[in-house]
UniProtKB/TrEMBL annotation:
It comes from Herbaspirillum rhizosphaerae. This is EAL domain-containing protein. The chain holds residues 499 to 780 of 780 of the full protein. Residues 24-278 form the EAL domain.
């Protein structure tokens, strides 16, 4: 069963998807052809500066347009792809597709903003990651600052040195690195001290009750000032209301992402929004 989730997209809600190994196998079998069959789509969500509500970047978020099941969201297939090393070819497709899209926007006179790509642990271990990124940038004649990388702290559980060295190479090439879902999971302050990080993205679980839960409000405020004092940018994820937005603006958060301003939408839909260039949320 598929359930409508706004803006013509379908969220796949079959409980058996996770429960049943058979379903996993079915998806897996299909997955191997899905890249070739051009069934993956990137949706884009704006990152918005709280100072003036201008769009300062986008995040690319993958969806699978399954011929029978409709639109499948990443939490339902990225773990599967990870387990079977399919995340590597998918990751390469994502990098090339983002670069192709950026070049297309530029060709059509739309001022491109940096696009962030989510990169998982396995992808960070891929020997071809750096090469794939650099050759895609070169092929489409893009300056490296137009690509950003989002990693979670789970990337640093195992071999922190090799993860760090890959990120340093990317940083040295001119890409920005953000720490995604910041504050969840295996958080260590040494990560933000030793890693070549440009921004912290505060996980949306801390934003949800920021107006009512004093601990959440304190955690977010402390993270904002920590980031500020370390010279890092700070972004809040999952902003769903005007009250949350204003709260974050008042405490000095730099940027927001969330359904209140804009849900992730297709490249065509984001184009119109990019042309406007800013929001008027008040
Ligand atoms: P993430 O990188 O933390 O992305 C943010 C998720 O929050 C996205 O879910 C986005 O649609 C959702 N979101 C944005 N604003 C709001 C809001 O206001 N409220 C709520 N409730 N949710 C909001 P999505 O697209 O389902 O992606 C889930 C996760 O899947 C991502 O979390 C990321 O870890 C992973 N993912 C997505 N695309 C890719 C990709 O291309 N490659 C890899 N490796 N992972 C990806
Ligand atoms: Mg992300
Ligand atoms: Mg996140
Ligand atoms: Mg997340």
């Amino acid at each position: 069963t598929a359930k409508k989730a706004g803006s013509g997209t379908y969220r796949f809600y079959d409980a058996s998807l996770n429960a049943s190994a058979a379903r996993g196998l079915e998806l897996l079998a299909r997955f191997r052809q899905a890249i070739k069959a051009d069934e993956f789509r990137l949706h884009y969500q704006p990152k918005v500066a709280l100072q003036n509500f201008e769009i300062v970047g986008l995040e690319a978020l993958i969806r699978w347009e399954h011929p029978e099941h409709g639109l499948i969201f990443p939490n339902d297939f990225i773990p599967l792809a990870e387990d079977h090393d399919l995340i590597i070819p998918l990751g390469h497709w994502i990098i090339k597709e983002v670069c192709r899209q950026l070049a297309e926007w530029r060709k059509r006179g739309i001022t491109p903003v940096p696009v962030a790509i989510n990169v998982s642990v396995k992808q960070l271990q891929d020997e071809l990651l750096l090469e794939t990124i650099l050759s895609a940038l070169k092929k489409y004649k893009l300056p490296p600052f137009l690509l950003e990388i989002e990693v979670t702290e789970s990337c640093f559980i195992g071999d922190i040195d090799s993860a760090k060295s890959v990120l340093e190479k990317l940083r040295d090439e001119g890409l920005r690195i953000s720490l995604d879902d910041y504050g969840t999971g295996y958080s260590s302050l040494s990560h933000i001290k030793t890693l070549p990080v440009y921004a912290l993205k505060i996980d949306r679980s801390f934003i949800r009750d920021i107006r009512n839960d004093n601990s959440d409000a304190m955690i977010v405020a402390s993270t904002v000032s920590l980031a500020r004092n370390l010279g890092l940018k700070v972004i809040a994820e999952g902003v769903e209301s005007k009250e949350q937005l204003m709260h974050l603006k008042v405490i000095g958060c730099d940027e927001v992402q969330g359904f209140y301003l804009q849900r992730p939408v297709s490249a065509e839909q984001i184009e119109t929004i990019l042309q406007k260039g800013k929001f008027d949320p008040l």
